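Sat 14:20. Reprocessing the chain from the morning session after the first attempt stalled halfway. Input below, unchanged.
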Amino acid sequence: MALPSHKPSTFLVFPWGLMSIALVLILNLTLNGAWFNKNWSWIAMVLIIPAAILENFKVGYSTMRIMFMKVVYSLLSFLLAGLAFGSALTGWHIEKFQKIPGVKSIQLPWYVMLALAVLLLIQVAQLFSMLKAVKREFMQMDPDN
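Finished this time. Tokens:
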């Protein structure tokens, strides 16, 4: 007779939102600008909608390991998107105000920024749902309740 496993499934601890943010940035940096400009809505839809759906599947699971990994992956998502936004803003500032030619920076079109903002909003919603699950779990352990 096999003992039940207490290890959460890989699906629950996999960072779907972080993976989507990384893929949006990688595709923006590596693909041809004209091709990406024409197909950005399809790329964003293929990356954002599955990330939102797969992250929503994790809402009901409130074990401490899953919640901890959600927080870590959300923080990494904000770090990665913040670095991309910061680099794009720095490149824009150097180009517009300092007028220094030949400085390499990340070029983020408006649609990539919109996709990153939507993915970050999904991460924020996941963090709030996790806080609600933690509150519910603590309320069940309260002896006065």
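The mean pLDDT is 81.
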